[in-house]
Design brief:
Elements: H1 8-18, E1 27-30, E2 38-42, H2 53-60, H3 65-70, E3 72-75, H4 79-91, E4 95-99, H5 105-113, E5 117-120, H6 125-139, E6 142-143, H7 150-166, E7 172-176, H8 181-193, E8 198-204, H9 209-216, H10 239-248, E9 251-255, H11 257-271, H12 277-286, E10 297-301, H13 308-316
Parallel strand pairs: 2-10, 3-4, 3-6, 4-5, 7-8, 7-10, 8-9
Antiparallel strand pairs: 1-2
Helix pairs in contact: 1-2, 1-7, 2-4, 2-7, 4-5, 7-8, 8-10, 11-12, 11-13
């Protein structure tokens, strides 16, 4: 039996739950008169600095009283952990976040600022997932997965409800991909509302887990991943997110670190938008050499949590 995909009704219900918590982020046109023209969906302007608050709050708000009383735990490279910590704080729930030992300090500090207990485990998603599952079992905590859960996917899909309303000429959407939660929700919503729109997933050349999985016809685990896009380094897509990508996504492309860093600088120079490398991957794909940009192109800027020193280097190179 195949995975049950998230429906438009699920996503609309999520939108009602997160209203007043997640922001309706702006869609801004960039490049007019100075080169390529397209639009940015600025999820870097969300509370906690990334789209993740959509899914995290949608899930936590549906937990029963006993689960909330026991507390929640997640494993995250950073942005989901911060978002879950914020959602938990808003709902009065104790939160624990397991991050990689290599997590950027700005993301660790964000989770701690919202009151979460932060633990560390290894460098891969499998390392931190194992630690989180162990802690959940030992402490009776409820797991809030970073991407592979229908409530998380439905929450992330609310981004696309806004894009469809904000862009009358919408023709193609570029979406950064880590574990695949954002593109799963976005593609489910857009495919239901605008079947003519092309959906493109973007992942780092150093972490092509969805590219490899699509080639194999099933989720596969990469031996290692490496990229400046620290939020997109999952070694394996989720089973549910892979099913959504297979059902709804037209194309998956990769961009290298040089292209990603150039996109961070381009966004600073041309749009006054602060994007972390993971969030700029979509723009890196839009700006690929010698490819015309279609009218109605939207790039989702998925996050803006970047260490100041790293950011200064990207925009000055």
């Amino acid at each position: 039996m195949g995975a049950e995909l998230v429906s438009l009704a699920d996503i609309r219900a999520a939108a009602a739950r997160i209203a007043g918590v997640a922001r309706r982020t702006p869609l801004i046109e960039v490049g007019a008169g100075l080169g390529p023209t397209f639009a940015l969906k600025c999820e870097n302007m969300q509370p906690a600095g990334a789209f993740k608050i959509r899914g995290a709050y949608n899930m936590l708000s549906q937990l029963g009283q006993d689960a909330r009383a026991a507390g929640v735990i997640t494993y995250s490279s950073g942005n989901h952990g911060q978002a879950m910590a914020l959602a938990a704080r808003l709902l009065g729930v104790r939160a624990v976040v397991v991050m990689p030992e290599t997590a950027p300090r700005v993301k660790v500090a964000g989770a701690e600022r919202y009151g979460a207990e932060v633990l560390f485990a290894g460098t891969t998603v499998l390392d931190r997932k194992a630690r989180a599952e162990s802690e959940a079992g030992a402490r009776g905590l409820t797991m809030v997965p970073p991407f592979d859960h229908p409530w998380i996917i439905a929450g992330q899909g609310t981004c696309a409800l806004e894009i469809v309303e904000q862009s009358q000429a919408l023709s193609v959407v570029f979406v950064p991909m880590g574990g695949g939660g954002l593109i799963s929700g976005v593609s489910a919503a857009i495919r239901a509302l605008r079947s003519d729109v092309r959906i493109v997933g973007v992942e780092p050349a150093g972490a092509p887990k969805m590219t490899a999985s699509r080639a194999a016809g099933q989720p596969v685990t990469l031996p290692t991943t490496a990229s400046i896009a620290d939020g997109l380094l999952s070694v394996r897509p989720g089973d549910l997110t892979f099913a959504h990508v297979q059902a709804f996504v037209d194309e998956v492309v990769t961009v290298d670190d040089r292209q990603i860093a150039a996109a961070v600088k381009w966004l600073f120079d041309n749009a006054n938008v602060v994007a972390e490398p993971s969030g700029a991957a979509s723009v890196a794909a839009v700006l690929r050499d010698d490819l015309p940009i279609a009218r109605g192109t939207v790039a989702v800027i998925s996050g803006g949590n970047v260490a100041p020193g790293d950011y200064a280097r990207y925009i000055s190179d």
